């Protein structure tokens, strides 16, 4: 159990266009999903926290108007990179949380989406 | 601000060796700590989760320990195999942090035949 999918796995787009990435929890409901980005040979950096039915909370330095997040249901969150530029090229990974015990949650990660902006 | 450091950054060992990966964190007020594995170009696979009240967790050839007071965790891999080659990441879930994970810098492991 606890499977998280992402779609697409890879996407190439032209500079100035927008790209939508989907994150789904397949066999559990996730009230909270997180979006990360990872540059080559670096660790994951949290971009935003996505809660079902409410506005996303962005980390410092992340432009909310550029990275639009929608969490429409307990199993789906989407990240839209608007007016993409080459510097937005990165590996984007989502995670979904499930109660692990007591008040502690465990995060399950999607397989990631490789975005290349040309 | 929570900072998570992993040592070593890279490690190369011959097949069959037992090895230890280290993770240290600056703020000991955590809910739990997770160890992940990441293969090149792939997402993260959760290996072990240790609650703040636990001292260790085991899964097959993996054993993770947690010393919350000293801000340290270790991942022990027994009888390493070439298939263990990957980047290993630890991440801490800070109490009162909204379940956000702070990731370590990672250890890139290569197990050679």
DSSP strand content of chain A = over 45%
Which segments of chain A are poorly predicted (pLDDT under 50) over 5 or more consecutive residues? Answer: none
Mean pLDDT of chain B: 94
Distance between the termini of chain A: 37 Å
Beta fraction of the residues of chain B? over 45%
Number of strands of chain B: 11
How would you characterize the largest beta sheet of chain A?
7 strands, mixed
Total DSSP E strands of chain A: 11
What is the overall shape of chain A? globular
Instruction: Quote the distance from N terminus to C terminus of chain B.
Output: 41 Å
Structural class of chain B: mainly beta
Give the structural class of chain A: mainly beta
Order of helices and strands of chain B: EEEEEEEEEEE
Low-confidence stretches of chain B: none
- Order of helices and strands of chain A, N to C? EEEEEEEEEEE
Biggest sheet of chain B: strands, sense, closure?
6 strands, mixed
Estimate percent helicity of chain A.
under 10%
Q: How many H/I helical runs of chain B? A: 0
Structure in words:
The complex is a heterodimer of chains A (118) and B (113). The mean pLDDT of chain A is 92. The radius of gyration of chain A is 14 Å and the shape is globular. The N and C termini of chain A lie far apart (37 Å). Chain A has 118 residues and is mainly β. Chain A has no helices and eleven strands. In chain B, strand 4 and strand 5 form a beta hairpin. The interface between A and B is medium-sized, with 27 and 24 residues.
